[in-house]
Amino acid sequence: MANLNAQNTTNASENRPNVLKEIRAKWSKFSEQDLSAVQNRSDLITQVQNKYSMDNAQATRDVDALLKGRQFAH
After folding, report:
1. What is the pTM of this model?
2. pLDDT given for residue 8 in this prediction
């Protein structure tokens, strides 16, 4: 199990630069500073809600669609 967790962490950190590019492409209101502060999916959902005045359900759907099941962690 520890090996699987280590693999998921590696995959998340490898995916992060690509996911950040996709976030900037989809949500242009994010600054580099905003993106560097995002630690995980939950943080991203909160930021999308705040920047785009969305309710939680819509922000969650949009973030999940962008992540497409990928891990996203700092």
Report:
1. 0.78
2. 46
